[in-house]
């Protein structure tokens, strides 16, 4: 089973898409990159590993925080990645961590209530 890495941050209405992406596929593990507010307020629908970041830190620091968690915990050689929620800096950190960890990825998003794999 493919694991999922998703961002849960800013963007009106994006938390519901994150929830739907998690629901629409039988993911191995689910990693949610978020801040303290996201971890406190988001109610996961299944077992989830939160990776806490502080967007005020440098891009390099964010990449290192994310990479430290995913490098040993991702099963397989590819992950699904959903970047609908969050900022560009957060997205760059997620992609940077995945690439530096040597993990392949495919983007996943909702389109007409169906999961689209890119």
Search tags:
4 helices; alpha/beta; 6-stranded mixed sheet; 118 residues
The level of helicity is 25-40%
What sequence of helices (H) and strands (E) makes up the elements?
EHEHEHEHEE
Number of helices: 4
Strand order of the largest sheet: 3-2-1-4-5-6
Shape: globular
What structural class do you assign from the helix and strand content? alpha/beta
Low-confidence stretches: none
Count of folded domains: 1
Number of strands: 6
Question: N-to-C terminal Cα separation, in Å?
Answer: 17 Å
What is the assembly state of the chains in this entry? single chain
Task: Specify Rg, calculated over alpha carbons.
Answer: 13 Å
Quick overview of this protein structure:
This protein is an alpha/beta fold and 118 residues long. 37% of the residues lie in helices and 26% in strands. The relative contact order is 0.25.
Overview of this protein structure:
With 118 residues, the protein is α/β, with parallel strands linked by helices. It has helices spanning 14-23, 36-41, 59-73, 88-100; strands spanning 3-7, 30-34, 49-52, 78-82, 104-111, 114-117. A 6-stranded mixed sheet has the order 3-2-1-4-5-6, with helices on both faces. Strand 2, helix 2 and strand 3 form a beta-alpha-beta unit. It is globular and about 35 Å long. The mean pLDDT is 94.
